[in-house]
From TrEMBL:
Protein name per its UniProtKB record: S-protein homolog
Species, as recorded: Stylosanthes scabra
Phylogenetic classification of the source organism: Eukaryota, Viridiplantae, Streptophyta, Embryophyta, Tracheophyta
Transmembrane annotation, as ranges: none
Record family assignment: Belongs to the plant self-incompatibility (S1) protein family.
Subcellular location: Secreted
Keyword annotations of the record: Secreted, Self-incompatibility, Signal
Length: 148
């Protein structure tokens, strides 16, 4: 009888764990894109260098209004992090975590504008109002406290 009970327990555990395990392994998250636009006051050029723990996206030079964008698939552990340095005229250099899972998991197209005071993220409403996609939200952040 104890064996039978144990069998039921094992079977129950399998049913409870395997579907979610399979789900986690098979359902890969969709790709997320991050776009960064140079809107520095004074029309300064912007030098960006973005990295994650595993990827170095290289040094990018942006003229006024130019963009740099990249795509990635957030990991299933909820720990995806991309951080960038932003440098401009006069030796100014600032850090910012441009993609941080807990803050950004709901944006699949994250659009940032870089001001000297800090970056602002625009959330674009993906709902299609007959061809018009409105910017619904703009959130501005402080630079990371540590200097580069
Ligand atoms: C940069 O991206 C923004 C937002 O997607 C777009 O409006 C703008 O035209 C782009 N600028 C350039 C120079 O491609």
């Amino acid at each position: 009888m104890a064996d039978l009970a144990r069998s039921f327990l094992v079977l129950g555990l399998l049913i409870a764990t395997v579907p979610s395990l399979g789900h986690a392994l098979l359902s890969r998250k969709p790709k997320t894109s991050v776009e960064i636009q140079n809107v520095l006051e004074g029309r300064d050029d912007l030098t960006i260098h973005c990295k994650s723990k595993d990827d170095d996206l290289g040094v990018q030079y942006l003229k006024p209004r130019e963009n740099f964008s990249f795509r990635f698939r957030p990991n299933i552990f909820g720990t995806t992090l991309f951080f960038c340095s932003f440098a401009w005229k006069g030796g100014v250099c600032r850090w910012f975590d441009i993609y941080e899972h807990d803050r950004d998991e709901h944006c699949t197209k994250c659009t940032w504008q870089i001001f000297k005071e800090g970056p602002c993220r625009f959330t674009v409403d993906d709902y299609d109002y007959g061809g018009e996609h409105g910017v619904v939200d703009e959130l501005c952040y402080d630079w990371n406290p540590d200097r580069c």
